[in-house]
Amino acid sequence: xxxxxxIAPSILSADFARLAREIEKVESAGADVLHLDIxxxxxxxxxxxGPPVVSSIRKITKLPLDVHLMVQCPERLLxxxxxxxANWMSVHIEADVHLDRTLHFIRENGIRGGVAINPATSxxxxxxxxxxxxxxxxxxVNPGFGGQTFIxxxxxxxxxxxxxxxxxxxxxxxxxxxxxxxNNLDSILTAGAxxxxxxxxxxSSGKDASEAVRDLKKIAxxxxxx
Length: 226
Ligand code: DX5
Ligand code: ZN
Known about the structure:
By secondary structure, the protein is of the alpha/beta class. The chain contains 8 helices and 8 strands, in the order E-H-E-H-E-H-E-H-E-E-H-E-H-E-H-H.
């Protein structure tokens, strides 16, 4: 069996006035997961959407909803996002001092639990929690905004995490988020990423969103047998 590489469009760069149409486009083009960025204006200097919008999105797509919580004390909000229809949920290691409890809570609710990690945070902080996470979300930009430039040093971080997952035979998958597009996807997949988040490369590249998804899938296809 080949590698299971998944494309996860982030709606942050979509036209929110036409959200249903934008989601329909990426779904029909073969996107695997829909990435939803939740920002609280504290953990990151930006505000986005909350549970009511997630719940409305749940009604118009069959795609799994990947909720990326960029909020302080995420444990306060877990119930509401689960209720709204999240299928995957990641919390930042920098934002939650009781990560073990949070991840167990998420997974006990039948949802995939992920740990998100900022570019400046050391992978060594994941040592104890890795066996309890379904996936690690490596931020390849500083979180808060779409359309930023990929930070090159994160490639090595992806590679190091992949090595540690493989050598421990963990089932943990690697999701990457920020500044990813057709120009750097190849090297990111070579480094070992499994789930690819892309916002501006899909929704504000000048191309149609469905064509942009198909372009990324074509690049991913070459890595499926590796
Ligand atoms: C950034 C968000 C990302 C963002 C990525 O804080 O977590 O999901 O939407 O956008 P691009 O792909 O434009 O960097
Ligand atoms: Zn994100």
